[in-house]
Every structure is written in structure tokens, then in C-alpha cells.
């Protein structure tokens, strides 16, 4: 199939040139310099892989999500707490109490307390909630990996589409420029013949109308090209130029629809993400259910408190008292908590988690069916685009022959200028359709790779540093 498509493509580019603006000449004029000098479709995908902001944001989100495992695994580890406090107080009393032995005017008392302690606690059993939490976190992280793979495929496919848009628009501009020049010559020839009475004003007006239409199309296409350059810049962070290298067909495309579907069911990121999300939802059931089991905790603590007090009476013979007290308390506690009734909240959460798990299981089948649909659609469009290249090749060739015959018939007087203008328009339309069919064919090739889960940097062997979340996950999971 691929060899056949390549033959058709090569045949289309080798059409004999009857007119100066034939399709074969325009395609041949596209630069074919080495990839190191001309911008290639691999350059576009590499730029998108390294620089696309949406993809970079998605990757960063995945890296941040790795901390969920550390947070879940915290249930395995002990907790150590250090407490310290310093308290100071002062009380001042004043009055005019008198007696025969002393004269008391006021009293002052101060008290300072310093305390410190350390507490060590370790959960020994919580109904398997920690086991389920770590399992759920791991599966959720792996689902996120699949999601970033899907984002990578979407980004690469977008860069491919942007590159092909640039290439096709530049080719169309060349076709339109050649057609504009040909129509200018037609108009000039008609005006010269009008001067000597061999042509009519009607034919001149027809030539002017055709030229104006071609010029308008050219201006529109040039505007579209500038917009395509902006899109290409946004997706790839590469400044587009007119030096584009015609792409090659992607390798290792599936040759049979059934094989493509089977490959997609195994490797499509949407299916993989749905499977891991289902496993994470199942783990959530066990995590919630842990709240219905007894919980066993061990706790050891040591605390020391120092109290200093000072009482001073401001009189002749009043007493002055001071005291220093120290208190040390060490304790070991084994605590068992058995939930008897929690108001139904945990049981409700467990039922809810079960329903979510069922929902995620249905989502797997939904993802599979969607994948089958997308692969089938891509396959059919791919086949149609391949056939259209052959059909439009035939149309271009027939239009070229028709135009040449019409010009010859006009030379002997059996055709008029309008017939030649119509034949030129028909050829231009066939050429434009051929360009569009070629773009569609390449795009559907890459789309088929995406639906089967193969449109990624490693499969395409792009010259980039591959994003590897597993190494970051391994490093993060060992932190505590």
C-alpha cells in the first residue's frame, strides 16, 4: 500500500509540462535541499515536542502529581512531634490594710513556667487504608502518564497539520502566481487583438474577470499563509520560512484495518488511561473501607516542666517566698480504636466509591469503542486520500490535454478566448485539488499513527531528549 502511494505520488510529480504553470512544474520547484538546511516535518515535530507550552504544562502537572504517592505512603511512617512552651505571669495587689505589728501597702507575685516534650507515634493497623492509598496513588500517576502521552500525540499531530498547511499553501501560491501570469498574458493578447479588430470587448472583459478572480484568490491564499505561519510558530516555536522540505511517509503503518484496531486497543493512550483510572477507583474502595476496621496506634512521649514562682510583700516584716519545681512525665500508650457507628458516612463513601469504580469500568469500554471508531475513520480517510491522489492526477493530466487542444482549436477559429480561459480555470482547480489531496494523504497517515498510539517521539525517533516521568517518579517516591 505504501509503495503504491509512493508510486502515485512520484507519478503525479513527473507529469509532462504542457503549460508554464502545470502542477508538475510547481511541485518540482519546491526546494529539495537536505533536511539540515530545509525545514522538515521532523523539525516541526521536534520543535513542538520541546517547546509547545500546552505540552510542557501537562508534563509539569504530571511531575507534581508524583507527590501524591509520597503523601499516601506517609501512612507507613512514624510521626515525631516536639513541643515547647514558655509562660510568664505577674500579679500585683495593693491596699491599705493596717495592724499593730506591720504596715502592708502592696504585694507582688511572679510565676514562670517552661515546658518541653517529644512525642513519637506510629500507626500499626488501619484496616488496609494505607495499602489501598498507595496503590491508588500509583495507578492514578500511571493514568496521568497515559494522559500526557495523549497530549504528546495531539501536539505532534497539530505540528504535522501546521507544517502540511504551510507546504500546501506555498504550493497553491506558486500555482496561483503562475496562473495570474498566464491570465495577464491572455489579457494583453486580447487587448492587442481588440486594437486590430480580431477580438471583441466581451472577450477582453472575460479575460479581465478571470484575472481579477485569480488575483483575489492569490491575495486570500497569501493571507492564509501568514495565519498558518502564526499557528506554526505557536505550536512549534519555530519561525516558518519558504524553505520547506517535502515530507516522507511515516514508516511501519499498519497494512490491515484489523491489525490497526488491535494495535490501537493495546497502545492508544486513552484506553491505557481509562484502565489505570479504573484500578485507582477500585483501590479507593479499599481505602474508604479501612475506616470501618479497628485502628491500632503506638505512642511514646516524654515531657519535662519547670516552674519558678516569687512572692514579695512590700512591708517591714512581710515574708518573701521563692520556689522551683521540676516535673518529668514519660508515657507509653498502645491505643486501639474500634468504630461502632460513624453516622453512616463511611459506609456511604464506600458505596459511592464502588459506583465510581463501575463508572470507570464503563469508561474503559467507551474508550475502546471510541478508539475503534477513530481508527476506522482514519483508515477510510487514509484509503480515500490515497485514491484521490490517483484520481486528481488523472484529472490534472486530462485538463492539461484539454487546455492544449482548446488553444489549438482557438488558433484555427473553432474555439474562442472564453473557452481557453475556462480550460485554464479547470486545470487550476484540478491542480489545487491535487495539492489538497496530497496534504490530506500525509495528514491521515500521521493521524492513523496517532489513533494506534504510535505518534510519539520515541517511535518516530525524533532527535530530542525524551520526557521520562518514570525516573522522576522513582526519585520522588523515595523521598520522605
Detailed description of the structure:
By secondary structure, this protein is an alpha+beta fold. The radius of gyration is 41 Å and the shape is elongated. Helix 5 (67-73) runs antiparallel to helix 6, helix 6 runs antiparallel to helix 7 and helix 7 (201-236) packs parallel to helix 11. It contains 13 helices and 4 strands. 34% of the residues are buried. The chain has a 4-stranded antiparallel β-sheet with strand order 1-2-3-4, with no helix packed on it. Residues 1-37 have low confidence and may be disordered.
Summarize this entry quickly.
This protein is an alpha+beta fold. It has helices at residues 2-13, 23-28, 41-51, 53-65, 67-73, 129-195, 201-236, 257-267, 269-289, 345-411, 417-451, 457-460, 469-477; strands spanning 79-94, 106-125, 295-314, 320-337.
SSE inventory with pairings:
Elements: H1 2-13, H2 23-28, H3 41-51, H4 53-65, H5 67-73, E1 79-94, E2 106-125, H6 129-195, H7 201-236, H8 257-267, H9 269-289, E3 295-314, E4 320-337, H10 345-411, H11 417-451, H12 457-460, H13 469-477
Antiparallel strand pairs: 1-2, 2-3, 3-4
Helix pairs in contact: 1-10, 3-6, 4-6, 5-6, 6-7, 6-9, 6-11, 7-11, 8-10, 9-10, 10-11
Amino acid at each position: 500500500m505504501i509503495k503504491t502511494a509512493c508510486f502515485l505520488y512520484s507519478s503525479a510529480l513527473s507529469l509532462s509540462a504542457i503549460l508554464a504553470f502545470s502542477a508538475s512544474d510547481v511541485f518540482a520547484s519546491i526546494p529539495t535541499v537536505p533536511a539540515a538546511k530545509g525545514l522538515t516535518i521532523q523539525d516541526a515535530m521536534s520543535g513542538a515536542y520541546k517547546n509547545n507550552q500546552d505540552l510542557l504544562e501537562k508534563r509539569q502537572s504530571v511531575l507534581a502529581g508524583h507527590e501524591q504517592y509520597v503523601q499516601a505512603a506517609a501512612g507507613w511512617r512514624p510521626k515525631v512531634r516536639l513541643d515547647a512552651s514558655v509562660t510568664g505571669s505577674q500579679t500585683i495587689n495593693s491596699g491599705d490594710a493596717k495592724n499593730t505589728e506591720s504596715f502592708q501597702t502592696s504585694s507582688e507575685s511572679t510565676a514562670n513556667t517552661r515546658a518541653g516534650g517529644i512525642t513519637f507515634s506510629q500507626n500499626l493497623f488501619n484496616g488496609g487504608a494505607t495499602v489501598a492509598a498507595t496503590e491508588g496513588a500509583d495507578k492514578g500517576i500511571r493514568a496521568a502518564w497515559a494522559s500526557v502521552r495523549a497530549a504528546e500525540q495531539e501536539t505532534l499531530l497539530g505540528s504535522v497539520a501546521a507544517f502540511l498547511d504551510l507546504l500546501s499553501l506555498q504550493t497553491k501560491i506558486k500555482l496561483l502566481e503562475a496562473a495570474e501570469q498566464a491570465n495577464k498574458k491572455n489579457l494583453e493578447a486580447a487587448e492587442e487583438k481588440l486594437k486590430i479588430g480580431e477580438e471583441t470587448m466581451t472577450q477582453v472583459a472575460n479575460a479581465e474577470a478571470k484575472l481579477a478572480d485569480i488575483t483575489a484568490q492569490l491575495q486570500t491564499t497569501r493571507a492564509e499563509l501568514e495565519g498558518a505561519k502564526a499557528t506554526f510558530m505557536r505550536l512549534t516555536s519555530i519561525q516558518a520560512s519558504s524553505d520547506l522540505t517535502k515530507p516522507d511517509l511515516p514508516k511501519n503503518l499498519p497494512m490491515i484495518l484489523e491489525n490497526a484496531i488491535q494495535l490501537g486497543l493495546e497502545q492508544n493512550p486513552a484506553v491505557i488511561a481509562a484502565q489505570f483510572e479504573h484500578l485507582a477507583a477500585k483501590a479507593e474502595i479499599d481505602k474508604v473501607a479501612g475506616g470501618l476496621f479497628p485502628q491500632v496506634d503506638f505512642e511514646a512521649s516524654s515531657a519535662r516542666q519547670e516552674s519558678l514562682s516569687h512572692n514579695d510583700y512590700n512591708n517591714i516584716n512581710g515574708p518573701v517566698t521563692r520556689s522551683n519545681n521540676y516535673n518529668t512525665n514519660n508515657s507509653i500508650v498502645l491505643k486501639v480504636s474500634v468504630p461502632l457507628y460513624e453516622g453512616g458516612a463511611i459506609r456511604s463513601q464506600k458505596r459511592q466509591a464502588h459506583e465510581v469504580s463501575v463508572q470507570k469500568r464503563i469508561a474503559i469500554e467507551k474508550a475502546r469503542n471510541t478508539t475503534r471508531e477513530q481508527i476506522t475513520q482514519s483508515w477510510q480517510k487514509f484509503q480515500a486520500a490515497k485514491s484521490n491522489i490517483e484520481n486528481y492526477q488523472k484529472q490534472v493530466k486530462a485538463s492539461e490535454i484539454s487546455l492544449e487542444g482548446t488553444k489549438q482549436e482557438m488558433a484555427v477559429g473553432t474555439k474562442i478566448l472564453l473557452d481557453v480561459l475556462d480550460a485554464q480555470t479547470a486545470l487550476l482547480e484540478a491542480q489545487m485539488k491535487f495539492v489538497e489531496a496530497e496534504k490530506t494523504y500525509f495528514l491521515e497517515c500521521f493521524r492513523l499513527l496517532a489513533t494506534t498510539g504510535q505518534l510519539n517521539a520515541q517511535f518516530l525517533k525524533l532527535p530530542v531528549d525524551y520526557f521520562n516521568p518514570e525516573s522522576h517518579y522513582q526519585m520522588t517516591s523515595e523521598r520522605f
